[in-house]
Amino acid sequence: MILKAIAVDDEPHALELLEVYVDKVPFLELHKTTTSPWEALKIIQEEDIDLLFLDIQMDELTGLQLLDISNKKCPVIITSAYQEYALDGYQYQVSDYLLKPYSFDRFLKAVNKVRSEALDKNNPVTKISTATNQPKASHIFVKGDAKNKFHQIKLADILYIEGLKNYVQFFCHKERIITLQNMKYLEENLPTNQFIRIHRSYIVNLDGIEKVEGHTIYINGQLLPIGQSYREGFYSVLQERGLKN
Q1: Distance (Å, rounded) from C-alpha 40 to C-alpha 6?
Q2: Quick one: which of 41, 50, 47 has its CA closest to 4?
Q3: Which of 31, 129, 161, 208 has the greatest count of CB atoms below 10 A from its CB?
């Protein structure tokens, strides 16, 4: 499958870098680059485009305004130097948000995601059968505060996990459990479709999030910070789940 893409950015050097990256990806074809959002809008509305690379801050028309007008005719990957627009972008259900300057590896991850979504859309039977074969864990056993002592915790009961110096705390709906487990182990072993690390000290249950405001998560009346190095991955997961603040 070849994805026919266009790119709009008011910085020519940003378009030049994008062209270099696209040339390295065999399933991408860069149909057009432009510094004019109006030209990009015309192409989106008149031609069959599979992917739009879109800058946010442009003088003639912002990227978000373009999305409003175009009614998102194709998948969008935002490319922006401004992290504060990430959540706004994901509210438009963009495929990914690349924060400039971004590496080729990060670019490749974004376009592979779009390609995977396109393949799933064209072959929904494969997607359903694959998902059906995945077992879903319902509990986790964690070390207690004594030898050979373990707690069985129902995953649905966990609101968030806080890592402290020598132990972690599970904040559940009805209780708090302190264990000798470590955060790295939990991050690697909890179901990634349900739990995500948002800070060096916090792992949260996505189902427990009440709202996101700025770089803060609200869970059960508690305010938890989103660490800078975890923000990109967290906002990407929000977009995948269709969550909005």
Answers
A1: 8
A2: 50
A3: 161
Cβ partners under 8 Å of residue 24, min gap 6: 104
| Helical segments of the chain, H only | 12-23, 37-46, 63-70, 86-91, 104-122, 124-132, 183-189, 231-241
Q: In this structure, what DSSP letter does residue 221 have?
A: T
- Residues 47 and 45: their CA atoms lie apart, in Å, by 6
C-beta separation of 139 from 116 below 8 A: no
Amino acid identity at 145: D
Position 114: which residue type?
Answer: V
Assign residue 231 a region: left if phi > 0, alpha if psi is -120 to 50, beta otherwise? alpha
Q: Which two tokens stand for residue 16?
A: 């030049």
Q: What kind and span of H or E run contains 179?
A: strand 176-179
pLDDT of 168-194, one tens digit each? 899 999 899 888 777 888 888 888 888
What is the token pair recorded at 120? Answer: 């799933």
What the block records as the tokens of 238 is 């929000």
Query: How far apart, in whole angstroms, are the C-alpha atoms of residue 193 and residue 45?
Result: 35
Q: What's the whole-model pTM score?
A: 0.53
pLDDT per position as a tens digit, 91-142? 677 888 898 888 999 999 999 989 888 877 765 443 433 343 444 567 887 7
End-to-end CA distance of the chain: 35
Element (H, E) at 208: none
Q: Which pair of structure tokens corresponds to residue 13?
A: 């050097």
